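FORM 7B: Structural annotation worksheet

SECTION A. Query
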Amino acid sequence: MELVKHSLSAGIYAATSDYIHAMEVRNPTRFLFVSGTMGLDAEGAPGKDLSVQLDLIWSNLRAILADAGMGVSNIVRLTSYLGDAGHAEANQNARLAALGDHIVPTTAIVVQTLQKDWLVEIEIIAAA
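SECTION B. Predicted structure
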């Protein structure tokens, strides 16, 4: 499988350093579509604050990816659902820490449909 990053520089607004416009996936053998994943512990209880929930989300995502024989480097698309616009920077920082130099197309959406105790939800698409 080959991942080709597309971040246009002419005729469209520039992407910032933490995301790209598009990811082309060439010759994958499989895809993994992951439901929105919350910052819940193994018993289903939400983390006590935003930082704990973001840690739990990324831990949960790594476990799901590992179960499929993948890791964060297999992520080709990421969408974050934020319960509050004020969570954007912490969410971005957690994503950058989790992905390192693996920059992917990403969108963050502020929603009102999360349960009160769920501060962020992240869904991903991975390919191998």
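SECTION C. Observations
The domain at 2-6+30-127 is CATH 3.30.1330.40 (60s Ribosomal Protein L30; Chain: A;). The chain has a mean pLDDT of 96.

SECTION D. Sign-off
Analyst initials: ____
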